[in-house]
Amino acid sequence: MNNTPRDIIFRITLKFLESDISLKLIIDYYTCKKNNFTKRDISFINNVSKGIIRFKSVLDYNIFKHSKQKTIDNKTLSLLYLGLYQIIYCDSIPNYASVNTTIELAKIKSKKSKSFINAILRKNDKNFLKIDSNSSYDKLKKISFGYRKWQVNKLTKDYGIDKTRQFLIQNLNIPKIWIRINTLKTTKENIEEILITNKIDYKVDKFLEYFLLIEKFDRKNIIKKLIEKGLIYIQNPSSGHVVNILDIKPKMSVLDACSAPGGKASLISQITKNNVELTCIDNNESRLLTLKNNLSKMNCKNISFINCDSSTFSSEKLYDIILIDAPCSSFGTVKKNPDIKWRLTEKKLKNNIETQFKILNNLKKYVKINGYLIYSTCSIFNDENENNIIKFLNENGNFNLSKDYKIPSNFKTDLGAMKIFPIDNEYEGMFASRLKRYD
């Protein structure tokens, strides 16, 4: 059973449990072209792997309620997750097939655990707790909504019980995909014609017309081909609103810090029609290479690249606009990246906050007088957002929070910043503030 889709899912899950690598990177590694999987195989691997992590707490609950063992090794757990997820969430797969294929894999991967795995799966065959976005509050409370308790407590402190509950429940759903039309290489009309011809349902964003929500994914790899040609880019409109806050004028000098993989940089090039002096920096050489390739493919020009850490960056040049897309918990994207809730610890969150403030304090020196420093994260934790800005303004009297920009009124906070809280829409969580330097 080596290199079958289920074997790969087992490997992905095991690697995730035993490392601190993002689930996306693990999946990408195991589904690369050299493994020659079909599109259907890759879809199955993606859906089940992400589903296991999205509903990990549900699977744990169902496993341990039938187990006398208080701890289970990662190999055995990975096999149990594989079998149990299929039993609970894959309605198209008969339960006996989910059990039998898992046991066959266990004979190879963890022979000593075969009987234990068989017993747990068969006990869950008809009697299990299933959680989804339609579940009752009592059911969801049993597993802390599928999140770590400290995360739930922190969100509740920031937003209250009702709003937090809405957020946690919504994130049990699988997100839809947004694409952004790259008008440097094509037109909105051309892309819409391609989608309509290939019967791909979509919806135009009500605020940003070059963002389209794909309602029903295509079976002909049309979207993938358009991405490969640089005609579209996978991007959530929340990022588009951040770029709008920059309010870039032609020939301005812009520094895009922490720039890879290039979503916001390419949009900057797009809305200015390459008529901007753009500098992109990133501290990771591999990510910088990806950034260069992405921007080149999308026909973005007049860009220079620097491989460095934003917290130690130095320059004799000053910029009209500096965009800090700060490293963060990414908790506003947990619907798309369910592994975040398991990888994020309180210590990591604290380290993020310290790093964010270091970057802010360093890059403030390179903003021109009357220029702007835009601070953005895809987090919804106040400690990574408003609290950082309030602290920065208290310590830097030559900066003020600029509120003279246009964003939808429901995204503007009392502070005057932008915050998108992802409830009942397909927007990702996002924060951005625009700080003006006066001297």
What do these coordinates show?
The chain has 439 residues and is α/β, with parallel strands linked by helices. The protein has helices at 5-18, 23-30, 39-54, 56-64, 74-89, 95-109, 114-123, 137-142, 149-159, 161-170, 188-197, 222-228, 237-246, 263-272, 285-297, 340-343, 346-363, 386-395, and strands at 177-181, 202-204, 211-214, 232-234, 253-257, 277-282, 303-307, 319-325, 367-377, 399-401, 418-420, 430-437. The chain folds into 4 domains: 5-123, Orthogonal Bundle (N-utilizing Substance Protein B Homolog, Chain A); 137-170, no CATH class; 177-234, Alpha-Beta Plaits; 237-437, Vaccinia Virus protein VP39 (Rossmann fold), CATH 3.40.50.150. It is built from 18 helices and 12 strands. Strands 5, 6, 7, 8, 9, 10, 11 and 12 form an 8-stranded mixed sheet that branches. Strand 5 (253-257), helix 14 (263-272) and strand 6 form a beta-alpha-beta unit. The protein is globular, with a radius of gyration of 23 Å.
Question: What is this structure, in a nutshell?
Answer:
The chain has about 450 residues and is α/β, with parallel strands linked by helices.
Furnish the topology, listing elements before pairings:
Elements lengths: L4 H14 L4 H8 L8 H16 L1 H9 L9 H16 L5 H15 L4 H10 L13 H6 L6 H11 L1 H10 L6 E5 L6 H10 L4 E3 L6 E4 L7 H7 L3 E3 L2 H10 L6 E5 L5 H10 L4 E6 L2 H13 L5 E5 L11 E7 L14 H4 L2 H18 L3 E11 L8 H10 L3 E3 L16 E3 L9 E8 L2
Parallel strand pairs: 5-6, 5-8, 6-7, 8-9
Antiparallel strand pairs: 1-3, 1-4, 2-3, 9-12, 10-12, 11-12
